Each structure stands twice: as structure tokens, then as C-alpha cells.
Amino acid sequence: MGIFLLDLLAKRYAEYRLKEKESRQLAGGAVILHRLENPGTALGFLSGHGKAVLRGTFLVLAVLSVYFLHLIRRPGRTGEKLGLALLLGGGWNNWADRAVKGSVTDYISFRSRWRRIRRIVFNLSDFAIFAGSVLAALCHDRRRS
Fold first, then answer.
1. Is the dihedral of CA 33, 121, 133, 27 positive or negative?
2. Cβ distance 133 to 65 under 8 Å?
3. For residues 52 and 143, what is the distance between their CA atoms, to the nearest angstrom?
4. pTM score, two decimals?
5. Which structural domain, as residue segments, surrounds residue 137?
6. How far apart, in Å, are the Cα atoms of 127 and each of 51, 94, 112?
7. How far is residue 112's CA from residue 30's CA, in Å, rounded to a whole number?
8. What's the rounded mean pLDDT across residues 100-115?
9. How many domains does the chain have?
10. Are 107 and 123 in contact (CB under 8 A)?
11. What local confidence, expressed as pLDDT, does residue 144 receive?
12. If residue 57 lies in a helix (H) or strand (E), which one and from where to where?
């Protein structure tokens, strides 16, 4: 829930304080705030298929949510639970953004000597999805599922 609310507030800040494609530098220019509306999935993939992306991500998040509810009642497996909580918090936040507005607000990038890295604009939910996916995958114990 914390990831959901924190990113929701950050997205609304970006929407109200930054014009589309405007940027502001933070931390000596190492972090850059942008406002970019992404109608697709990560890195803008499937941008022309909004309804399919909305339905597909809903299905994946619903299945993972059911698994999480099953898992949360079991003792232990803290790493996997934390990973799924991060993934689901970020995933549902991006899904809600897409369902309401038809796009996801991305707002942060990093200075890098590599142009491809500089061009990627993220949001907090994206970080949570990535970190949660890695953590859940690394901590998943198939023998006890």
C-alpha cells in the first residue's frame, strides 16, 4: 500500500508541477524530473494497444494477487512475500493510472554517459515492480508452493 500511495502522490506532483516533457535537475543533475505520459508498457512497448495492455496487465496482476493471498497465510517466505508486495503495489498503481487516464505518468530519469539510459523515464512503481520481481524470483521456493 505504501508504494501505491507514495507513487500516486509523486505522479500527481509531476502532473501538476511539470509540463509534458519539461525537465528539472536534482542532486547536482544526477537525477532528472520529467513528465512523460506512457500509453504502453515498460519503455513504451505496445503503445498503440492500450486496451490489450490494460486487459493483459489486469489478468497478470489478478493471478499474482490470488497467489499472494494464498502465500501470505503461510509462515515464513518473507523475501517472496516482500517481493510480491512490491511488485503488486507498483503494478496496481500503474494499472490504475492507465485505467483512469489511458497512460502511465513517468517522471524520473538519471544522468548517464549512455544515451539509452538517459532517455529512459521511470516512476517509483516501475522500480518497485523490478525490485519486487527480482526478489520474489530469487526467494521463491518451488518445493513448498
1. negative
2. no
3. 34
4. 0.84
5. 2-144
6. 24, 11, 17
7. 8
8. 86
9. 1
10. yes
11. 55
12. helix 50-72
